[in-house]
Amino acid sequence: MFYNSTRDRAAKVSAAQAITQGISAEGGLFVPEQLPKLTEADFNALIEKSYVERAIVILAKFLTDFSDVEIRYCAENAYHDKKFKTNNIAEISHLFDGTYMLELWHGPTCAFKDMALQILPYLLTTSAKKVAKGKKIVILVATSGDTGKAALEGFKDVPDTQILVFYPEDGVSAMQKRQMTTQEGENVAVSAIKGNFDDAQTGVKKIFTDPAVVEKLAENNMMFSSANSINWGRLLPQIVYYISTYCELVRDEEIAMGDELNVVVPTGNFGNILAAYYAKKMGVPFGKLICASNANNVLTEFIRTGTYNRVRDFHTTISPSMDILISSNLERLLYDLCGCDDEKIKTWFASLSETGKYTVDAGVMEKLSEEFYAGCCDDDATRATIGEIFRKYSYLCDTHTAVAVKVAQEYKKETGDDRKMIIASTASPYKFAPSVLPAITDEIPADDYEQLEQLHELSKLEIPAALAELKHKTVRFTGSVDKEEMEQVVLGMLGLA
């Protein structure tokens, strides 16, 4: 299997090259030339396998330049009970009849990003040995909260790598910030920026594609790569958990093979829901893909109207990982929906860069409406949903998952669609205790760690050790820079300034 760029269909690279490079030279994103199809025999075999075994089978369909031994090495080292607090890796909770919470946060940083970022270092280092042997891989990350910590933890002390994470100084939760700024490891660095996530993401992409910076790295035997979901190696493992979840529900006799399920995903950068779309195209019987946004509802408006317009007020919300106005992975979806027309993609995204908006054509809009539904809710509705679900079902969800639950409720009410549904639960509620607690109690301790204890008393959920231990860790990274200074921070970290 080879990979093209969304902005240069003629580009043709191997999986190892796509993963190592992260982003195409002209700024496009790598996508497979065609998606593999799962047969009935494939599904029957997958149903009887463990999560790791399913991952090996699915990864092999995309990573055709990897040996069977290499793929097994990557999967077995990423997914085991020393890293994930469950043998199932992803747990499925039954919220109420026909609604399943896909809990993707049982990994080391308590967020769904672990599902991909525990395996990405293995995929990347294996890829680099094939196409960039002897080079140091410099990983740049823009984060709205969870990706940063998950990437730092995944790449901590990985040989021949250096990782630098940028986050908006006022755009992450206190717990997310402490997770990043106390990160251990000799090859890690973290910097806040004075701006929002979109500023961080734009800055990272600009550095990636700056010929002068790329040349300076090459002169010093280094090259850039990414741990954001612009990297195919980040997105591919997310496809795995959607396929695995469907197989798990069949094995548990919750559904019969062939039954359609709707999927609800809280998303800002569009990667998590795009993985569900790819799983559907591979043959998983998913019905409507429901995109849930917070007050930064640029995706809701786009899916409903066909016009993407980032020129709007930016809201800092209690679901900060979704505080995004430029959804990078949407480019991959549009490339697929427009028949891989790279000229259309270049036109639309040039318009986004120059004017802040673009409008897709009628054909793409028709396909978009057929596959997706979109809804959004503000912070008040998010808190109300957390409280409602906790009181009704004794189930505590975080602020991002609650957005998905609320939009799922609105979808059912609006459409009458009674198909069973999977809701992607993307983070532990303990990561956002100051926002979750007021939804279920009036007694809010001032201290962050007392808030964890209070949440435990009320919910009886175990406090993740990774969060409880932060209280005793030393803050290592305190810097904050203007967005215009990001390039100098990168070069300074590498000793190239």
Keywords:
497 residues; five-stranded parallel β-sheet; Rossmann fold
Task: Explain what the structure shows.
With 497 residues, the protein is an alpha/beta fold. The protein folds into 2 domains: 3-79 and 114-232 and 477-493, Rossmann fold, CATH 3.40.50; 92-110 and 252-435, Rossmann fold, CATH 3.40.50. It contains 22 helices and 16 strands. The protein has helices spanning 15-21, 40-47, 51-62, 68-78, 114-117, 120-131, 146-155, 174-181, 197-208, 211-219, 232-251, 271-282, 298-305, 330-337, 342-355, 362-371, 379-393, 399-415, 433-440, 448-459, 465-468, 486-493; strands at 3-5, 8-13, 30-32, 91-96, 99-103, 136-142, 161-168, 188-194, 222-226, 261-266, 286-293, 307-309, 357-359, 372-376, 421-425, 480-482. It is globular and about 60 Å long.
- Oligomeric composition of the shown chains: single chain
Output the radius of gyration. 21 Å
Backbone shape:
globular
Number of strands: 16
First-residue to last-residue Cα separation = 39 Å
Strand order, biggest sheet?
4-5-15-10-11-14
Kindly give the count of domains: 2
Structural class of the helix and strand makeup?
alpha/beta
